[in-house]
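hey m, so remember when u said the tokens were messed up on ur end? i reran from scratch. heres the input so u can diff it against urs
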Amino acid sequence: MTYKTLVAITLFLALSIGAAAADIAGMWIAQVPGRNGTRDTKFNLKVDGDKLTGTISVDGQDTPIADGKVSGDSVSFTANMDRGGNTIKFTFTGKMSGDEIQFKREGGQGQAREFTAKRAK
């Protein structure tokens, strides 16, 4: 394999990973389970390279995403959410497949919760 071929393949793979990460950007809607039932939740995700930012909106209250990362079809971030005057840190990890992200949320005093977010249309 020549040097030029190796560079071309590396560049192609880097661009492919960036394109996959860009697909995660946008509005996602989910029914997130919790101790008191499910809550309508919106995820407004923004991608810049492998960095993920955005907000989570629950009951009209927006919470910024922190420590966000995207790698191919995988995503992870944290969010400090206000629950009755208490700030609780949640960690979200997910894997995108088509117009869905399979998420796992951990944190607070409850058990880990799994849910599916669907791309808003």
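this time it looks ok to me. The CA atoms of residues 27 and 44 lie 5 Å apart. if urs says something different then somethings off w ur setup not the seq
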